[in-house]
Amino acid sequence: MRPLTYSRARDVDDALALVAAGPDSAFLAGGTTEVDLLRAGVSRSGHLVDINDLPLTAVEDRPDGGLHIGALARMNDVARAPGVVHRFPAISRALLQGASEQLRNMASLGGNLCQRTRCPYLRDGVSACNKREPGTGCAALDGPNRGHAVLGTSDHCIATHPSDVAVALVAFDAVVHTVGAAGARAIAADDFFLLPGETPEIEHPIGRDELIVGIDVPGTPIARNSVYLKFRDRQSYEFALVSVAAAIEVDAGIVTDVRLALGGVGTKPWRAWRAEAALVGGPATEAAFRRAAAVELADAVGREQNAFKIELAQRAAVRGLNQSLKGIRS
Amino acid sequence: MSTTESRQDIRGPHCVPVTVEINGRGRVVDVEPRVSLLDALREHLGLTGTKKGCDQGTCGACTVWVDGRRVLACLTLAAAAAGHEVTTIEGLADGDELHPMQRAFLENDAFQCGYCTPGQIMSAVKLIEEGNATTDEDISEFMSGNICRCAAYPNIRAAVRQVRDAAGGAA
Ligand SMILES: Cc1cc2nc3c(=O)[nH]c(=O)nc-3n(C[C@H](O)[C@H](O)[C@H](O)COP(=O)(O)OP(=O)(O)OC[C@H]3O[C@@H](n4cnc5c(N)ncnc54)[C@H](O)[C@@H]3O)c2cc1C
Ligand code: FES
Ligand code: FES
C-alpha cells in the first residue's frame, strides 16, 4: 500500500475542510471498500479523512411512514431496525443478504452507495479498464465476462454495480443528501448512479469533497409487501448474479401500483421503469409479469458468458412479483 | 502525498504512536497510518493469534471484536481503531481456563489445520450473543464470513450448538 496520511474529522465542517485541503483526500467510513482498494493499488487516495466520529448514525422512522438513514449507520443496524424490517422488508433483506456479519458491522450506508464495482479487471490493477485508467479500454468486452452487466452498458464499460441495498433504495425512490462547499443537495437515488457512457470513471454526480450525510426514503405503503431475492453462485457471502426488489399492489386482479428494480445485471442499480409502466392498470397474472419483464430486458446486450443473465433476470423479476403478491418474504 | 494544511491532528505518513486498548490493556504502537489493525497486532504487538488469510475482507481469518462487535482486522486501519476497545483470540481465555467456545472447538474437533480457527471462534462467540444460532441453517448463514479451507463446517456447527445448548438454550 502507498503511504498515507490520516486525520479524524470532528464534525461535518471539519470533514469538508480536511477533504478539500488535499487533491488526493478521501473520506474513510467503514473502510471495507477504501482500505481494500488502497491495498490493491486501485485507490490512489493519499490522505484519509476518518468520518466515523460524526453523529450520522441514526436510523429513524418518519411520520409519513418513511425512513431517515444516517450516512454512517452500519448495514447491520439498518437491516435490523424495526421500522426498516416492517415498513421496508426489501431494504432489510437486501442488507442482510450482502457481505458477511463482520463486514455488515463495519460497512456504512454512505460507503455502500459509493462502493466500487467488483469487476476483476478494475481490481487487478493491470488489465485495460476505463474506470481505473480512462482510455485504456475495457478488458471485459472480450475477456471472461460472466459476472458483467447486460443493461446500461457501453463500448467503454460493462461493469456491474455490486450493491444490494442500492437496488431496494432505487425501487423506493430514496433520496441521497449531501453537503459540500457549495451547500447541501438532495439527489434522487436513481440519479446518484451514472451510466458509464463514454466516461465510466465518473460514477456519481458528487465531487470528491462532497459528503453524503444521509438517505431519506419516502413513506411507501406498498413497500410493506416488498421482497428482495438474490440469486448467486453460492448461497451466502457472495455478490448477486441477479437480484430483484419487488413490491406490488393489486385491486380486484388489477395492478394498482408496483415497484421493481434489478441488481447484478445493470451498470447501475436498475429501476425497471418500463416494466412498471407495462404492469400498472393491467392484470396481475404471471403472463403479464412475464411480458413486463421481457419489455424491461428488450434492450439488454449479452456477451459471450453473461447472456444467461437476460433470461435469469426476467425469471427473477417474475418470481419477485409473484412472491410480493402472495406475501412470501424470502 | 497530499498537500493538506499542516494541522497537528494530521498524522503520518511516517510512524505515529497509536493508543489502542487491546484485551483490556492500553497499548501504544508506533505505526504508519496505512498499517492495518491486523498487521499492528501480528507484526508490532506479537499477538499472532489473529490470522491473515486473504488480506482483502473475504475469508474472516482476521476476525476480532472492536467495541464488542465482530469485524475484520485486515480492513480496519490501526489508526482508526485508536480510542476503541479491541479483543483478540488471546483475550478470550480466563487465565488458564479456556473460553467455553475454545473448549467446544477442541472437544468437537472443529478444525483440521487450525488456521481459520481463531477467526471462527471470535465469530462463533458473537453469533450466540447475537441470537442467530437457533438453527443449523442460521449458524451457517451468520458464520458464512468465516471460510474454512479444510471444510470443518459440520464440526464447527457442532461446537456452536454445544455452547448454545450449555448456555441453557438462551441463544
Ligand atoms: C468480501 C466482501 C463482500 C461484499 N459483499 C457485498 C454484497 O454482497 N453486497 C453488497 O451490497 N456489498 C458487499 N460488499 C461491499 C460493502 O457493502 C461495501 O464495501 C461497504 O458498504 C462500503 O461501506 P464502508 O463504510 O466500508 O465504506 P468505505 O470503504 O469507508 O468507503 C467507500 C467509498 O465511499 C466513500 N465514502 C464513504 N462514506 C462516505 C460519505 N458519507 N460521503 C461521501 N463519500 C463517502 C469513501 O471515500 C470511499 O471512496 C462486500 C465487500 C467485501 C469486502
Ligand atoms: S484476512 Fe481479513 S478477511 Fe481474510
Ligand atoms: S481448519 Fe483449516 S482452514 Fe479451517
TrEMBL record, chain A:
FAD-binding PCMH-type domain sequence ranges: 1-222
Single GO MF annotation: FAD binding
Superkingdom classification of source: Bacteria
SUPFAM superfamilies in UniProt: CO dehydrogenase flavoprotein C-terminal domain-like (SSF55447), FAD-binding/transporter-associated domain-like (SSF56176)
Entry keywords, A to Z: Oxidoreductase
Matches recorded under Pfam families: CO_deh_flav_C, FAD_binding_5
Gene3D superfamilies: 3.30.465.10, CO dehydrogenase flavoprotein, C-terminal domain (3.30.390.50), Uridine Diphospho-n-acetylenolpyruvylglucosamine Reductase, domain 2 (3.30.43.10)
SMART domains the record matches: CO_deh_flav_C
Protein name, UniProt field: Carbon-monoxide dehydrogenase medium subunit
Organism in which the protein naturally occurs: Pseudonocardia sulfidoxydans NBRC 16205
TrEMBL record, chain B:
Gene Ontology molecular function: 2 iron, 2 sulfur cluster binding; metal ion binding; oxidoreductase activity, acting on the aldehyde or oxo group of donors
Domain 2Fe-2S ferredoxin-type: from-to ranges: 16-92
Keywords, ordered alphabetically: 2Fe-2S, Iron, Iron-sulfur, Metal-binding, Oxidoreductase
Gene3D superfamilies cross-referenced by the UniProt entry: 3.10.20.30, [2Fe-2S]-binding domain (1.10.150.120)
InterPro entries: 2Fe-2S-bd (IPR002888), 2Fe-2S-bd_dom_sf (IPR036884), 2Fe-2S_ferredoxin-like_sf (IPR036010), 2Fe-2S_ferredoxin-type (IPR001041), 2Fe2S_fd_BS (IPR006058), Aldehyde_Oxdr_Iron-Sulfur (IPR052914), Beta-grasp_dom_sf (IPR012675)
Pfam families: Fer2, Fer2_2
Chain segments annotated as coiled-coil in the UniProt record: none
Transmembrane segments: none
Known pathway: Alkaloid degradation; nicotine degradation
Keyword S-adenosyl-L-methionine in record: no
Domain of life: Bacteria
Protein name: (2Fe-2S)-binding protein
Organism: Pseudonocardia sulfidoxydans NBRC 16205
